[in-house]
Structure formats: C-alpha cells, structure tokens
C-alpha cells in the first residue's frame, strides 16, 4: 500500500476504460429502473409487512427480540474486527456488507418495536366511559350512537395496519434486498474462491474471520424465514448499485493513495481485467436469484394454515 496512489499511465490503459463501461452500464440501467418504477408504480407495500412474522403462531415480539439479538451480536463482532484489525478492514467488501446487514437489523428492530407498540395499543384500547354510560341507560338512540363509535374505535387501529410503509419502511426493504444479494456474493467468493487459494503466512483463517464471512448470511436467512417482507427481482437494482459504489470507492482510493488491491480480481493492470469485471457483474444474477429461490421456497413449501393473515390484501 503506497501513499501516492496509482499514476496516470495506469488509468489510461484500454482495459480500464472497458472495465469502467462494464460497471457503468448496469449502474445506469439500475438507476433508470428505480426512477421509472418510483414514478409509475403506486406504492403497494404495507407497514405490517415490516414487523409482522410470517408464521401464524409466532408473536411479533419474538421477531423483535430476534432482530435485537442479531443487531447486538453483529455490532459486537464488528467491534472486535475493528479493534483487532483496525479501520483498514473497511477497505473490504465483506465489512461493507457486514455493516449494512447490521444497519438493517438496527432499523428493523426500531420498526418492529413501533409495530409491537401499535399492536399493544390496539388490544388495550379502552372504551370511553361516556359510551359505557350511554349503553347502561338502554336508550335506543344512545345504543346506536355507541355502536357507531365502537366501530370507529376498532377501525382506527386497523387503519394503522393498512398504512403504507413510508420512507423508513421502504428504506428498510431496500436495504434488505441489497443485503440479500451481498451476503451470498461475499460468502461464496470468500469460501469458494479466495480461501482455497490463500497461501503463506500473511493469511490465517481465524474464528473471527470465519464468523464475519458466515454470520451475515445466517442472521439474514433466519430473519427471512421469520418475516413477511416482500421479495422480488426489482431489488436486484439496489444490489447492483451497492457493488458499483464499492468498486467506485476502490478506484477513487487507488487514484488517491492506494496501490494494493484488497481483491486480486479488481486489479486493472492486466488484459484479463475486463473479463474479471464482466464475470463479477454477471455473478450478481445467480447470487440474488439464489436468495430469491430460498424466500420463494418458504412461501411454497408450507400450507396456508401456518401463515399469518393480517388483513385482506384486497382491502389494503
């Protein structure tokens, strides 16, 4: 690792331009898709999907406690990594993804806590004393008025379940989609590509490194098994933007102060660089598709009797 970065001659090589186009084209396509979808597609995600468990007999508090446990655990492992290896670890895609999953669980914990609070208020909503007095008087007009107001009391909390996700809810789901592909990419590349070819004394697989390259996927998969979040191919766009941001970060850092690449397949001083970058871009499809298949398997392998039905989706 140097202090002056890579020289101008390095960035004027033909393979740098080709590799840049390979990254730029899917990035622009993803941005265009997000803008088009935002302008032309009405919001159909609802707040209860964010914190209601997928399973009928699982209370939302259980999902809340799990998310809190995952957030605390990942924060602790991230702390150990930074203390042990220094802030330089954030030059690696693994730590970027691990931090993003941690942020997801932090946001999911807050939203789950709010959802449980809404659910508690619904179940404990008292009937006003004046309505009870009217009922005890057995006045027909008063009874009719009480019925109307009782309906208002029951409908009002239900409207909280039918509200759309809002900014923070959409942000949580977009981070969820990004994490889904990123954890698969991180763990497959590390365990299947990097680790088998690591030799010498400069690398040693430790328990902490193993946890950093496995707990991210384990925690997120368990959350996916429990939650009711929507999952579709459109989330691939956020995954692509996340990886493009990391590569841009690496290029900027190497133009300014670095000469050592954290991953050998990011090296641009080789005629094989465009092939490596094209392979990386293409590999995003099976990584995200694999996670999508796992989520789809959850919805198709179990009968409807196990699934929680919060509200009639046609009315929402």
TrEMBL record:
The species is Helianthus annuus (Common sunflower)
Mark the transmembrane ranges. 12-35, 64-90, 96-120, 175-193, 205-226, 238-263, 275-294
Repeat is among the record's keywords:
no
User: According to its record, what are the GO cellular component terms?
Assistant: membrane
Answer whether the UniProt record assigns the keyword Membrane to this protein.
yes
Protein origin, superkingdom: Eukaryota
Report the protein name in the record: Transmembrane protein
Highest lineage ranks of the organism? Eukaryota, Viridiplantae, Streptophyta, Embryophyta, Tracheophyta
Q: Which UniProt keywords apply?
A: Membrane, Transmembrane, Transmembrane helix
């Amino acid at each position: 690792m140097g202090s002056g970065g890579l020289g101008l001659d390095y960035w004027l090589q033909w393979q740098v331009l080709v590799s840049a186009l390979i990254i730029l084209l899917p990035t622009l396509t993803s941005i265009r898709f997000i803008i088009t979808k935002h302008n032309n597609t009405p919001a159909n995600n609802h707040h209860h999907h964010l914190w209601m468990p997928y399973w009928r007999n699982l209370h939302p508090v259980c999902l809340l406690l799990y998310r809190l446990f995952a957030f605390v655990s990942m924060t602790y492992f991230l702390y150990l990594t930074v203390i042990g290896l220094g802030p330089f670890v954030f030059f690696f895609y693994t730590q970027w993804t691990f931090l993003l999953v941690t942020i997801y669980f932090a946001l999911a914990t807050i939203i789950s806590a709010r959802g449980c609070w809404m659910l508690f208020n619904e179940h404990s909503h008292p009937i006003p004393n004046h309505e009870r007095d009217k009922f005890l008087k057995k006045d027909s007009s008063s009874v009719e008025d009480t019925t109307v107001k009782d309906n208002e009391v029951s409908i009002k909390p239900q409207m909280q379940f039918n509200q759309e996700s809002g900014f923070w809810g959409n942000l949580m789901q977009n981070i969820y989609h990004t994490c889904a592909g990123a954890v698969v990419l991180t763990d497959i590349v590390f365990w299947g590509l990097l680790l088998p070819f690591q030799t010498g004394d400069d690398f040693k697989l430790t328990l902490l490194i193993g946890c950093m390259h496995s707990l991210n996927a384990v925690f997120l998969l368990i959350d996916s098994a429990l939650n009711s979040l929507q999952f579709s191919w459109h989330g691939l766009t956020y995954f692509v933007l996340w990886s493009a941001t990391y590569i841009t970060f690496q290029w900027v850092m190497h133009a300014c102060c670095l000469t050592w690449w954290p991953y050998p397949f990011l090296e641009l001083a080789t005629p094989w660089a465009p092939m490596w970058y094209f392979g990386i871009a293409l590999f995003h499809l099976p990584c995200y598709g694999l996670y999508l298949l796992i989520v789809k398997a959850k919805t198709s392998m179990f009968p409807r009797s196990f699934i929680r039905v919060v509200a009639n989706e046609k009315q929402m």
